[in-house]
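Recall from the previous lesson that a structure prediction takes nothing but the amino acid sequence as input. Here we apply that procedure to Putative transposase from Shimia gijangensis. The sequence below is the only information supplied.
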Amino acid sequence: MLYVRFPLSLRNVEDLLHERGIDVSHETIRFWWNRFGPLFASEIKKRRIQQLRSYSNWRWHLDEVFVKINGVQHYLWRAVDHEGEVLESYVTKRRDRTAALKFLRKAMKRYGTPEVIVTDKLRSYGAAMKVIGNEVKQKSGRWKNNRAENSHLPFRRRERAMHRFRRIRSLQKFVSVHASVFNHFNQDRSLSQRCHFKLNRTAALAEWRGLCAA
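The prediction returns the following tokens.
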């Protein structure tokens, strides 16, 4: 949880655990992350998908992040709902219609079809939506997609802490796990009262411990 939730390196987590009396190496933490991170993230995503499908997905925000892997530029497509929760992440080498179409179909298959899709001026979105048949739902304009832009910040902090990525597979794996854990603990503390925030934070931590115990 420390490694995925906070912008810490493996050695930072090793030092934190040492201060708490737990003597493990950073390679052990790497093994824990590779072994259990996807399992916990999958269970969190499964529960949240069941909840999200019960409500109207009235607005999605789509945007892509430029990510370099071994000096080569790649694209991380991300779908965020109207509350800032990351729905889907997908890494590609190109930013064309084929990549946008695959990303949209993957997100809609999992979460259903939204009422409105907010994007930037990238033409690949419009071309992909024409194939799907929902181009009338697309909205784009200045500042309309700030929700997606702001959701990139936690990932950028993690990217700097990890000194970037070396393989597409490792990037795809990490962003999937990171998005699920971030959604689980994200309480929007600036939008809620302190008493409500503390209750929600305690409930999220208790649910996480339940996943670890299972």
